[in-house]
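Dear colleague,

Following up on yesterday's call, I've attached the two folding results inline so they're easy to grep. Please treat them as preliminary; we haven't cross-checked anything against experimental data yet. The first protein's sequence and C-alpha cells come first.
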Amino acid sequence: MRDDKSDIDLISQVLQGDKMAYAQIIKQHQRFVFTLALRFSKCREDAEEIAQDSFIKAFRALHTFKQNSKFSTWLYSIVYTTTMTFLRKKRLDTQSIDDETSLIQLEAYSSDHTIIDVEHKSKMQFVNLAISQLSTIDAAIITLFYQGEQSLEEIAQALGMESNTVKVKLHRARQRLREKIEGILKQEVRDLL
C-alpha cells in the first residue's frame, strides 16, 4: 500500500509550484486508477482515456483536497465520477477485442513461465474474468476493497454511498463473485473433458 504521508508531501510540492512532483503522484497511483477505470468501462481504450482525464481533473482540483480522507480515496472518487460521466456520454455498447480478458491472456503468456507464476496468473485470470461479469458497482466495490485496500468508509466516500450500504453491497458482491467463479470453473472442467 502507498505511503499517504508521501502523497501529502508530493501534493504540498505540487501546490508550491513543483509540477514534476505530480508525475510521481501519477506514477504511484496510475496502475490502480487504470484498473478501476477498466472495471467500470470494460474497455482498455476507454479506461486509458478515463484514467488520463481523471489525473487531469485531480491536478486541476488538487488545491481543493482537504486531507480529511486519504488522497487515494479522493482520487478514486474522481475516477468514479469521471467514468460515470464518460459512460453516460458514450452510450454505445461496443465490444473491443482488446478487452480485459485479452489482456489477462497476454499477461499469462508474456511472463516468465515458472510454475508458481503461471498458477497465480491462472487463478487471477478466473477471478478477473468473474469480476468482469459482475455489475459495474459490484466490480468497483470488490476492486476498491481487495485491490485498492480501501476501508468501507473510504469506499462509501469515493462512491457517494453510506458505509452500511457499501457493507451490504460488498457482502452481496462477494456472493455473486463466488457464484461467477464456480460457474467459470464448472465450464472449464466441462471444456477439459
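Below is the second protein, in the same order (sequence, then structure):
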Amino acid sequence: MTRIYLFKRFERFWHWSQAALIIFMLLSGFEVHGTYKVFGWQQAGNLHTTAAWALIVLWAFAIFWHLTTGEWKQYIPTTEKMVAVMRYYAFGIFDPTSAHPFRTTQLAKHNPLQRMAYLGVKLFINPLIWVSGLVYLYYYELGRAGALAGVQLGTVAFLHTLAAFLMLIFLIVHVYFATTGHTPLAHIKAMITGWEELEDEDLPGKHS
C-alpha cells in the first residue's frame, strides 16, 4: 500500500464546506416546499437564503482557486478508458479479482466518469441553481426593471426545484461511489487527510 498526497488543504475545505451547505440548503429548501417542519417556513427561508449566499461566495473562491492553480484541468472530459470504467462499475466492482482500469495520480485525480459528472455539475447544475435562485430571490425587482421578458415565477421555482433534485441525485450517487475504494471509507478518509492510499497494483507503471 502506497500513500500519495492527492487533495490540497483548500480543496478539502472547499469540498466539505460545499457539501455541508448543499445538504443544509436541500433540507431547508424542502421545508420551504412544505415537505416537513423543523425551523418553520419563515426561518427556513431566511436560513436557505443565507446559506445560498455563503455557497455563492465559496463557489467564487473555488473558481478562482481552480483557475490560478491549474486544477481546472482535472475536469477536462476524456473518453480514454471510458468504456472500461463503465464496465468496471457495472460488473467488475462485484468481482473481487477485477482491478479498476483507472490509475489515480496527482495529475489525474478523477476517472473519465467522474470528470463527466463533475463537469456536468459545474457547467449545468450549479449555474441552474445559481441563476434560478437569484432570479427567484429578486423576481419582482427584475420584473420592474423589465429584465424577465414575461418569465413566470412558477417557471423559475420549477427550474430551481429541478436543479435541487438533480443535485440531490448527484449527492446520493457521489456518496455511493465514495464507498467503492479498497475499503468503504478509504476515499472519504482521503478527502479528510488529503492522503490517498493506493494498492501497489494500482500505481502507474504496474500494468505496463
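For the second protein, one point worth flagging: The longest strand covers residues 2-5.

Best wishes,
A.L.
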